[in-house]
Amino acid sequence: MIIFARLFTPGSAFAISISQEKKLGAQFMKMIKKRKILITDPIACNFVTKIGERIVAQVPPHPFKFSFNIVNEDQFNAFSAPASNIFVNRGLITALDNVDELAGILAHEIGHAIFRHVSQMIDHSKLVNMGTFAGMLLGIIIGATGGSGDAAQAMAVSSVAAGQTTMLAYSRADEREADKFGLFYVQKAHFSPKGLLTSLEKIRANDWYGNDKVPGYLKTHPGSKERIVYMESWLADHDKVKEPGNGIAPFKFNMIKYRLEGLYGNKDISENKFKHLLKKDPDNPALNYGLALVLARKSKLKQSISHLKQALLRKPFDPMILLEMGQVYLLQGLPQKADNVLDGLEDIPEVKVLAMYYQGEARLELGRLNQAEQDFKAVINKYPVIFPKSYFNLAKISSEKGEKGLSHYYLGLYYHEIGEPLNELFHLKRCLKNLTDPEKIKNARKLLKKLETKAG
Predict the structure, then answer these.
(1) What DSSP designation does 265 have?
(2) How many CB atoms lie within 10 A of CB 39?
(3) Which residues of 171-186 are buried (b: 16+ CB within 10 A; e: fewer)?
(4) Would the pTM of this model clear 0.85, i.e. be above it?
């Protein structure tokens, strides 16, 4: 295929080795996860991942396993990090209008990864070691907030990011290559290639008043004007190609978009935004759902339920709406109502894990310990890092059953996941006095050995 001509030509030879890139990618992902700036919501993450994987499935074999990540940042940005780790900011997703625009952004970033443009940047900057480069890239991705509430740290990261933007900016040739790839392969994946053009136009429309206001995407992805002209020309040349149907309902994209806004946006700003939009479209189920999420975060639980019921009038059996209703009933101290609403949602892949977790909490409050225990164990088997409180709840269940060793064991795992080594050490040592399960004893000793190694 012509579009892959450069993959096996000297162009990609001027890059660090694949093994070096894999090592740097692992190092970089460790840094990112330590910062806790990635959104871990399984519903939103799975949605973005499925779109990315649908595009990746169209390309010839490549040496890396792709990952797709949502950064909890309002800024308009997306970037392809080493070893095909793709990042897109929450603020960029919530600014888009449809799934074709999101697919276009992801396809462009996949193109950068496939052609190993970041590896070439690293190879060109010989004086910068890999650890320093990973730190610089982290600064670009997390932007001015620094991934924490520490203002001094945020300022330092921001200044580093600003100073290294030129080094980490793709060349115009890289951008053209990634655009060609994106337009071609996004269409092969049955998304409209127009999405890449309209998404870039939206990002460029936010190029306000001065260099400090330019979206990060335009700093690291230059030549937006030329890119728009090129895309318009490409689309004109391909106007006879039948427009593909992506098979994803606009409502579904809006639910994901408003879920991200409702769960992670600034509470006051998001509430005002949803209320403003609902004045124009009061029956819109996705908008009512988004507002309900914000209201639940602000402990306005009766109002949240009211908007969820309004959303259900238009979408009576939508699993995402029912899931949220179950959680709000839990927050209201109504576990039986929560259990009734959540019943059956564990069979729907889209919401399965969250439904099991909330149902586990409802059943725990209702005293149905065996069922709750099964729920939390099922959640841990799927997403232990996302739901560490499952371990805490299992400890509570074990305590109520008089199983002291198990209770301390699960508390040890809970504190391990949330990063409290002193509490982890205490409970893992205590659990060994009463545990009888050989596998759990082995795991507890293994974790204790790690703690001792770190302390030493």
Answers:
(1) S
(2) 19
(3) eeebbebbbbbbbbbb
(4) yes
